[in-house]
Structure formats: C-alpha cells, structure tokens
Write a structure and sequence with these properties.
Length: 307
C-alpha cells in the first residue's frame, strides 16, 4: 500500500510517498517550512506527481516537532506560529480538493520523535526490542521511549522530551530577573544549536573540515560528543534501555562524535554493564520521522503505540 508521510521541521519540510509492501520510499521532496499551508502543498505535490488521485483512499501521516493531541499541535517549542494549529482542519481549509483524496480514518498527526521511533521499531534497529530510546538530533533533540514493548507517553502525552531537560545553570544576562541563573537545556549543548552558538553557520562546511582533519572542527565535534554523552548517561541511568538509536539530521556525523560520547557515558553511568548500552546510528536516519508517519497512517495507529 502507498501512503504519504510528511515531516515538518523548523526550517524544512520533508514529504515522501512510502511503499509499505516493498518497504521503500517511492518519491521524496524537500521544501521550506512556511506554516500549515506548506504541509498541504507538499501533500498535493506528492499526490499529483505520483498519480495517487482517488476518492478518499490515501493514508496520510504528519510528523511535527512538538506536543501533539488529537491532530492539534499543543506546543512546538522550536517552531513559531504552530501552537494550537489543528492540521486536519488546516487541510480542509487550505485545499479541499487535496483533502478529498485522503482517507480521513487514516489521517494522523504525531510528534516527530514518536514517528521516528515507530518506524525504527518496525523496520530498523528497534525491531523486536522490549526497551529502547529513540533520539532525533536536529535543530533540537526529540525523544521517544519504548518500555516493555510499548511506547511510553506519560500521564500527559509528552514523555520523551529529553531535549528540554536541564543540563546546566548559567549566570543570567537579563536584568531584573528574580533568579541569578538561567537554565540551559540539553538541546542547546547537543544539537544544531550548539554549533550555532559557536558561530557555525554551515554545519556541512564544519563536517567537511573535520573529515579533512581540521583540529578546530574535530575539537568542536569532540565537545559536542561529550555534551551528548552526559545526556545519554542520564537516560541510561534512568531507563536502562537495551539500545539507544540516533536519528535526525546530525546522525550522519555519528562517527565524528560517538567516541567521546561513549567515554562520557562510561564515566557517568553507575552500572558497569549499562555503560556498554548499544548506541547506534539509525538505518533510516533523517527520513525516519516521515516514514514513521506514513506507517502510522497505514496501520491506523492511534492512542497507545506498540512496537
């Protein structure tokens, strides 16, 4: 069966047509994120170019970085203008002709890390695992947690938001604050924001320099790996998963940061056996959330997710 998966990020939107029978992407497009209309435009492009026109028969899943409930973005911390947006209603509002081609019973909006985790649990390294943590390393850090074969969402549906855990207290630079310190969240130390804070405008250029042996670039990735390792150690000490799977746009630089990350984990994880927890780069990496969204739509996944 063919389905549509759309991954909405802070700056870019990825759209795919996924063939679940062949377990492969049949078509892929990338565009700039420009509000809810861009998601509708992406769906239209995929439907028309892949000749998927029909009457209400296309499963469609949408992944977005934020807390999601009933197809509505409750809070997207890193994406301005998305809070409170109901994407099913947006599809109806912006282009009723596109909505007619979509199977309403298989229209799903979900947190991007949950989508990534779902895909990995079916076709990636998370398959047949009882416990796992799935992390998306991009503009921020998203997370999904698999416990006892089911995805743990928490009492309010936001479990896994590890990027917003407090990693450091820093002196406040804002006058008039009651506290002398501000919190620094983990994703400011171990995502693209880390590189931006160090004046890196083009992460690809930094990666190229590191792979050519540039010491400054290599040291930056080493520091990034140490920061990532601190958060991973906290996750391992708290959840003790079988495996941690890294996806998102930064996962392809895995070989540049994993060694210092592992050294940091070994230093801070309490249980010696747990300090050797398997940490791998995703098989589906930056396409994982879109694939997961497409699979959720096909499988009519709702409420409690199971691997």
């Amino acid at each position: 069966m063919l389905s549509i998966g759309i991954d909405i990020g802070a700056s870019k939107i990825l759209g795919i047509v996924y063939d679940s029978r062949r377990k492969k992407i049949a078509r892929l497009h990338i565009a700039q994120t420009e509000g809810p209309r861009s998601a509708v435009a992406m769906a239209e492009k995929l439907i028309l170019e892949h000749r998927m026109t029909g009457k209400g028969n296309i499963p469609t899943g949408i992944a977005i970085a934020g807390v999601v409930k009933n197809n509505t973005v409750v809070r997207a911390a890193n994406m301005k203008g998305w809070n409170g947006i109901n994407l099913k209603a947006a599809f109806r509002h912006f282009d009723i002709s596109v909505f007619r081609h979509i199977d309403i019973s298989r229209f799903r909006v979900e947190n991007d890390a949950q989508c990534f985790g779902y895909a990995e649990s079916l076709i990636g390294y998370g398959k047949n695992k009882e416990s796992a943590v799935f992390l998306t390393l991009g503009s921020g850090i998203g997370g999904a947690i698999l416990l006892n074969g089911s995805f743990y969402r928490g009492a309010h549906g936001s479990a896994g938001e590890v990027g917003h855990t407090v990693a450091k207290f820093v002196p406040s630079k804002v006058e008039g604050r009651n506290s002398k310190f501000e919190t620094l969240e983990w994703e400011y130390l171990a995502a693209k924001r880390f590189f931006a804070a160090h004046g890196v405008d083009d992460p690809k250029e930094l990666e190229d320099k590191a792979r050519k042996g540039n010491k400054k670039a290599l040291n930056m990735y080493r520091e990034f790996g140490v920061n990532l390792g601190v958060g991973l150690a906290n996750i391992i000490n708290t959840l003790d998963p079988e495996i941690i799977i890294l996806g998102g746009g930064l996962a392809h630089t895995y070989d540049l940061f994993i060694a210092p990350a592992r050294q940091t984990i070994k230093r801070f994880v309490v249980n010696p056996a747990a300090s050797r927890t398997k940490i791998v780069k995703s098989k589906i990496a930056w396409q994982g959330a879109a694939i997961g969204a497409a699979l959720m739509a096909i499988n009519r996944v709702g409420g409690k997710l199971t691997a």
